[in-house]
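Complex record, two chains
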Amino acid sequence: MAIEPRVSPAVVDPLEIAGRTFASRLILGTGGFPSLDSLAEAIRASQAELVTVALRRIDPSQRGSLVDVLDDAGVSLLPNTAGCSTARDAILTARLAREAFETDWIKLEVIGDERTLLPDAPELLAAAESLVAEGFVVLPYTNDDPVLARRLEDVGCAAVMPLGSPIGSGMGIRNTYNLSIMREWVSVALILDAGVGTASDAALAMELGCDAVLCASAIARAQDPVAMAHAVRMGVEAGRLARGAGRIPRRLYAEPSTPGEGMPDLAPRDDDAR
Amino acid sequence: MIVHLNGEPLRVEDDATVTALLERVNLGPPRRGIAVAVDAEVVPRADWDEHALSEGARIDLLSAIQGGA
């Protein structure tokens, strides 16, 4: 059993978005889980309190209700605009999500390219501005671009959610420096949204100063999603603690951790002939 | 009259409302997790009983799926 911190970090250090607080700094994406049962189990292991859902035309053959599973898990829903490629579609989808889930929180995704799923910055910014004006709490999925992050905060977004690398790629954080700059520039919640491949990526995001991590594919498509949910949760917690603890600077050369003074004289005597 | 539900033609009563349509496809009574758009405009839940459909209306009936990111 690992040594527990003196006080659970969540107790003294909750995540805050738009006036709501969350003990968990891991947000779970629901895409890609092989079944509703494995999703429910992974939610428990992740201890996530906020999970994403998408909206699609009702499939009459669909078995089991996702909303019922999520309600049973006691989590809050964060609807997204997955699949939208224009501001117009994203705004309409957000309004539909507000009707369906009785929440004005929206994870705004406006995709500009099918192969990379990278955000379309002008459409994203336009949609964010409109939705904020309509009273939505907007959490935009964005590029790892500090200037765009600042613009999104300026138009009133409640968080900024940069990618580490493309959605589902598992490539981790490709530009740690941009993420560090964003941390300096943005005062709303900074949430790493895409690219996590394993627990250490989540830890690195938190060490770089992210307030939370959203993880979907890395957990859902792992060989053991429940074990990975647990691992990513611990990665997030470890990274948050490490960020607060303050890491040592990187040095090119060694820095002895043991003092040189007081060493015994172990040199052979001159007359100690062998 | 004929309307289009999620892209498929469907015959409904001439005075059908959104609520009547939902019952027709066994989705009444209204529950959480469902949203309705008619001709690309959101129809708020509170208006479902009153909102009359017109000939050729395009209705999108949506629910939550696993998704995202």
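Note: Chain B touches chain A through 25 residues (CB under 8 Å).
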